[in-house]
Amino acid sequence: MFNAVLTLRLARHGIDIVLIGFFAWVALLPTFKFLWAPIVDRLNVPGFSAFWGKRRGWIMLAQLGIFSSMVAMAFTASDTNLPLVALFAILLAFWTTTLEVAADGWRIELAPSQEEQGPIVAANLWGYRSAMVAAGSGAALVAARADWMWAYLAIAVLAFLPFPILAAMRRDPDASAKRSGSLVKGIIASVVILLLSSIATAIVGWLALEVFSAAGITSESNVTPYVLVICMLPFVGLAFALPRIRKMGPDAPWRRSPALGPYVDIFWRYGFATLLVLGFVSLYRVGDVLALTLSHPMWNARGYSLDQIGIADGAVALPASMVGVAIGGWISARWRLGWALALGAVVAALGNWVYIWLWDSQAHGWILYTCVAADQFGNGLAGAVFVVYLSMLVNPRFPSAQYAFLSGFAFLLARLLAGASGTLQQQIGYDGFFMLSGALSIMAVVFLPLLAKVVPRGTSAGPERPV
Known about the structure:
By secondary structure, this protein is mostly helical. It has helices at residues 4-12, 17-23, 37-42, 48-52, 54-74, 82-110, 114-145, 148-160, 162-167, 179-214, 224-240, 242-246, 253-256, 261-270, 273-284, 286-302, 306-334, 337-360, 365-393, 399-410, 412-419, 421-442, 448-451.
């Protein structure tokens, strides 16, 4: 709702393709979820966590944040005030990401081995992708019959439904509080947290716009190189610190630090091979992110109706994605991960390249549905394999924080490029754009022979295992 559906909404309102590309940078926020993941790992949500436990408490807070942000996006659906639209899109991205951090930590705690992760990742992604497809398809179909305000309100109501389900679940084994009191206290605390986070985001956004304006940066400026440098600085710093990190003992302050310890542990365990791992994960999903950014504007430009787009996003995308996820989870549990990752990269690239045929063909419904099915199948298969791979890199002592770091870095390059996708499209066209996105995805295969030789240091949490 803050990415694919929003870009379609902006395209239908005639917003320039370059500005639409800039909105893809909202999706950069999940890249930096490692900054607040330790908070999710260590702190409880007042009220909610007292009865439902830490993980479910954070999920319930995030659900309220998602609901309120989406309602706000509904009431700015005319897109006449783009900075305000961006504010609520950022808040939606923040609370969506917070939910993912809590859910990923819960998932990894429940299933620490590769054999267990295969089926639980498939089940998790079935639900995740079903929700994405329902939102994309449902929003388009509602907007075709009413308008975008009602589309966002309808999906907001659906997004709220997990909250009462969680509230009805049984008490956490270690909890002693009462359900009703915890629910009331949690809702009051959530209102305060949501209000403060909205004010803080608005202030930071206003300051950022003032700084950009003073620096002469406009919608015509190419800021991607500068953003890339800023985002890479902390990781470059860690790379220079690798020799020192590798010599640290178990009682070293950096390794025991609640804020830095989980991330230093990754570099301590993998050494200089960390750079190889991060290079691989940053390329693996590039094609899918780029395709998601401009696929809906391309369908709109090609002349497909909202009804056809809604059917493609729903009745076609969901079963294709489900099959891809199921096969990805199955092969992850039974194949060596290197072979599974190679297959995922190839299938995902083919799913991108099929859009070249769509752009060069007449606007027939069956062509759109065929291309979407191929794209979503490849996306689902590659996504399931990739989640298992990232989960196996994680030290079980720090599941939320390390998974947040790795999955965030995995999409840093992709989301930076996505912000410049409108500019790229103007230069090479839609066919060239999707040719490039597929080629970038398949390049990740080059890393696999080297990754097969990477074995991390053992930890107190478990034995050494091949990456």
